[in-house]
Write a structure and sequence with these properties.
heterodimer, A: 400 residues, alpha/beta, Aspartate Aminotransferase, domain 1, Aspartate Aminotransferase, domain 2, 2 domains, 14% strand, B: 74 residues, alpha+beta, Alpha-Beta Plaits, 4-stranded antiparallel sheet, globular
Chain lengths: 400, 74
C-alpha cells in the first residue's frame, strides 16, 4: 500500500476546498469506513447485545471486534478493559473524575487541551489539587520538572502525547519511567498521536489511555474512550454514569464487571463499525508508513513557511519532534482574518483561534489572539502543501 | 427440557462474544441465545453448547482464564 495521490481519497471537497483541519477531525475517511457504517444501519441495526436475537448479537459482535482492534493497537492485553464512550473527552472525564479523591495531587503540563484542564479545575471543588508544569516556548517538556514536582500526595500524572496546537510531542516514555519509579498513576491523552505514533501501554507505563476515533485513527466522530491498564483495580475507578447495560437486569445497582461497569446506555454501534473499518485500514497501511508520509509533508510545510517574510511559526519547527500539525501567524493579520480569507479566497480549510487550549497558547506566547493551524493528514499530498504555502505567501505579502 | 444442550452463563455480552470466538477457533458447535428465563432473570445472552462438550469446554475456559458464572444443563 502507499499513500500516493492516485490510490488515496482526495483531500478536496466536491467544490474544490482543500481540507487542512485533520487535527480537529480527519477527513476524508479511508475507503470502507462509510460502507461499514451503512451496513450496520441497513443490515444489523439492532440494539447491541440487549435482546439476544441474531441481529442484536451481530451488532454486539461489531463492537466486540472494535474493542479487540483498539486493544491490539495500544498493546492492551484485555479487550474488556477498552471502555467506549462519546469521544476522548468522555474518556478523560471518566479517568479523572473516576480515579481522583479529595486530597489527591495531580501533575500536568501547560500544553494541555481543555479536555484535561477543565476537569482538573472542576475537581478543585472536591479538594483535588494540581501542579501545571511550564513547558518550553516550543511546547516541549523537560521530564525532570515533572519529577521535581512530585509531592507526598501526588497520585496521578496527566499528559497529552502531542500538542493539538503546534504538534510538539511530549516525552511520554520518559515520564512513564518516572511514574513507575514513584509508584504513581499515568493518564495519557492520545488524541493527536494515536494512529501516527506507535503507543504501547505497557512499554510506556500508561495506566489510563484516553483515545478518540475521529482523528488519526480515521474513524467517525462519536467514537473514543478509555483503556484501563492492568495496574488499576476497577473498584478504584468510579463510573461517571449508571444505567442499563443489558446485563444483571434483575439488579438496580451498577454491575462491577468490565466493560459494563462504565458503559451504560445504548452504544454507538454504527460509529464503532466505522472505527473498526478504519482500524483495519490503519493496520494494513501501517502506522510507520503514515508517519513517514506525514513527516515529509510537515517538513515541507515548515520549510516553506519559514521562508515567508512576516510568518512566525510556533513549536519545535522540526518534523521529527512533532506531528503533522503546524501553528503560525502572519504579522499584521488576525488569525480569524487569515482563516476567513484562506477559506473564501483560497478555498483552504484551516482552524484558527485558541484550539480549546488556552494554557498551551500562553506557553507559546500566542494568548489571547491564538494562531492559524494547518492539520495535515494521511491523505494530504505534496501539492496540498504547495497550495497552502502559495496562499500564505500571498496573504503575507499583502500584509507587509 | 432438551437433554442435548447446556448453556454457559456469563456476566456480560462482551464475555459471551469472547467465548464465541474461542468456540469458533476450537471448532465447537455453539450458538448465542437469550438467557433462558428459568436460569436467570437477565436480559442478556449466553452461549449454548452441546452437553457432551461441557467438560472439554470448561477445561478450555479455565485454560484461557475466562471466568464464567456457571455451565447449566438445559
Amino acid at each position: 500500500m502507499s499513500l500516493t495521490a492516485s490510490e488515496s481519497p482526495s483531500s478536496r471537497t466536491k467544490d474544490g476546498a482543500l481540507y487542512l483541519d485533520n487535527a480537529a477531525t480527519s477527513w476524508p475517511k479511508p475507503p470502507g469506513v462509510a460502507r461499514a457504517m451503512v451496513h450496520v444501519l441497513e443490515e444489523a441495526g439492532a440494539n447491541p447485545g440487549r435482546s439476544g436475537h441474531r441481529l442484536s448479537i451481530e451488532a454486539a459482535r461489531v463492537i466486540f471486534n472494535a474493542r479487540e482492534a483498539v486493544a491490539e493497537l495500544f498493546g492492551a492485553s484485555d479487550p474488556l478493559r477498552v471502555i467506549f464512550g462519546l469521544n476522548i473527552t468522555d474518556g478523560i472525564n471518566l479517568a479523572l473524575h473516576g480515579i481522583l479523591r479529595p486530597g489527591d495531587h495531580v501533575i500536568t503540563s501547560s500544553m494541555e487541551h481543555n479536555a484535561i484542564m477543565r476537569p482538573l479545575n472542576e475537581l478543585r471543588q472536591k479538594d483535588v489539587r494540581f501542579t501545571k508544569i511550564a513547558c518550553n516556548a516550543d511546547g516541549s517538556l523537560d521530564p525532570a520538572l515533572i519529577e521535581s514536582a512530585i509531592q507526598p500526595n501526588t497520585r496521578l500524572i496527566a499528559l497529552n502525547h502531542a500538542s493539538n496546537v503546534c504538534g510538539t510531542v511530549l516525552p511520554v516514555k520518559e515520564v512513564g519511567q518516572i511514574v513507575r519509579n514513584h509508584d504513581l498513576l499515568f493518564l495519557v491523552d492520545t488524541a493527536q498521536t494515536a494512529g501516527v505514533i506507535p503507543i504501547d501501554m505497557e512499554e510506556a507505563s500508561i495506566d489510563l489511555l484516553a483515545f478518540t476515533g475521529h482523528k488519526s485513527l480515521y474513524g467517525p466522530m462519536g467514537t473514543g474512550g478509555l483503556i484501563i491498564g492492568q495496574r488499576i483495580d476497577p473498584e478504584e475507578l468510579q463510573p461517571v454514569r449508571q444505567g442499563g447495560t443489558g446485563s444483571r437486569s434483575e439488579q438496580v445497582v451498577q454491575p462491577t464487571f468490565l466493560p459494563d461497569r462504565y458503559e451504560s446506555g445504548t452504544p454507538n454501534a454504527v460509529g464503532l463499525a466505522g472505527l473498526l473499518a478504519a482500524l483495519t485500514w490503519l493496520k494494513s497501511e501501517g502506522i510507520e508508513t503514515i508517519r513517514t508520509h506525514e513527516k515529509a509533508l510537515t517538513a515541507g510545510l515548515l520549510e516553506g513557511l519559514g521562508e515567508i517574510t512576516g510568518v512566525e511559526i510556533y513549536g519545535t519547527q522540526d518534523a521529527s519532534k512533532q506531528i503533522a500539525t503546524v501553528a503560525f501567524n502572519i504579522k499584521g493579520l488576525e488569525p480569524s482574518t487569515i482563516g476567513l480569507r484562506l477559506d473564501e479566497e483560497f478555498n483552504i480549510l484551516s482552524r484558527v483561534g485558541l484550539h480549546c487550549a488556552p494554557t498551551a497558547h500562553q506557553t507559546l506566547g500566542t494568548f489571547p489572539q491564538g494562531s492559524v493551524r494547518f492539520g495535515l493528514g494521511a491523505f494530504n499530498q505534496p501539492e496540498d502543501v504547495c497550495a497552502a504555502l502559495n496562499a500564505v505567501r500571498l496573504l503575507a505579502k499583502e500584509a507587509v | 427440557m432438551n437433554e442435548e444442550y447446556a448453556v454457559i452463563l456469563v456476566e456480560s455480552t462482551s464475555l459471551a462474544l469472547r467465548i464465541e470466538k474461542l468456540m469458533k477457533k476450537e471448532g465447537f458447535i455453539y450458538k448465542l441465545i437469550p438467557v433462558p428465563r428459568h436460569l436467570s432473570s437477565d436480559c442478556g445472552v449466553c452461549v449454548r453448547i452441546l452437553k457432551h462438550d461441557s467438560e472439554a469446554i470448561n477445561t478450555l475456559l479455565i485454560k484461557n482464564r475466562i471466568e464464567v458464572q456457571s455451565i447449566e444443563s438445559l
